[in-house]
Amino acid sequence: xxxxxxxxxxxxxxxxxxxxxxxxxxxxxxxxxxxxxxxxxxxxxxxxxxxxxxxxxxxxxxxxxxxxxxxxxxxxxxxxxxxxxxxxxxxxxxxxxxxxxxxxxxxxxxxxxxxxxxxxxxxxxxxxxxxxxxxxxxxxxxxxxxxxxxxxxxxxxxxxxxxxxxxxxxxxxxxxxxxxxxxxxxxxxxxxxxxxxxxxxxxxxxxxxxxxxxxxxxxxxxxxxxxxxxxxxxxxxxxxxxxxxxxxxxxxxxxxxxxxxxxxxxxxxxxxxxxxxxxxxxxxxxxxxxxxxxxxxxxxxxxxxxxxxxxxxxxxxxxxxxxxxxxxxxxxxxxxxxxxxxxxxxxxxxxxxxxxxxxxxxxxxx
Length: 366
What we know:
By secondary structure, this protein is an alpha/beta fold. The protein contains eleven helices and twelve strands. About 4% of the residues have low confidence.
């Protein structure tokens, strides 16, 4: 029959040693026996016992108290349950054995063998219960990680769909090419084809970022020129029917980031501004780029419908949307990306006046 567990017996009295060994084996414990603390310490490292029965008074340089302390301080052995045996019956010995050395239980000689067996069995059960609880917690944490990963994959998939939708909207500029061909506007045709190609390139860059996420690999953050991070605006503004005002400072410090991620932020904020202007008579989008102290800042403003005060505090929540076809992932993703670089995004809005999103990122330290 399979043994319950391993019991280390460290006792210098051979008769007592044999009695304890026999009683433990009757209870289906596997036993290992030593006659002094030094040998007991060696056996403990070799066998990793579940329970150790230690006599306090033993010959050699390691007594029971010292052996118990060593076991409890060793990271490979500190889960071993220890019961001390001694002929001493003084109260201070109990305090020293249980508190100072870290023993789990204490018996004074002479003792009843049934009582020792009962206490060893209880200690063994306590260890197994603790191990079972730890295994349950470990499994629960593992399951939680799997669920979180699945949820994150769902968010990433939704974000990918959101970004692709934005890119396809920009690429729709090619719809006007047949009319331009009929009018033989060759120069404008080439310009529009170039813009469509830029949309495809941006799409490839973003999907590469998603692939990198899924594989847990990808580009490392690197210094980026702020003007380059706002480059998608030039592409997305070509089919914009309103007025675009750009105000960029020169000689700005660089920003350390993954370029495709910040471009996703820009695309989302600019697309939201365009959508807010769909029913505005004279639509205007203003884009500003500047630095202040150790921050690089840009803002995207529109004179559109604005955001009602009762929902403005919720717009960055995951899956919150007021759009019929919205996913509620765009602004949530914007906030997550920026915060991963120590950045921030703030919104100011007045209904029927307009909205401004302001993004702040740490500047590269020279």
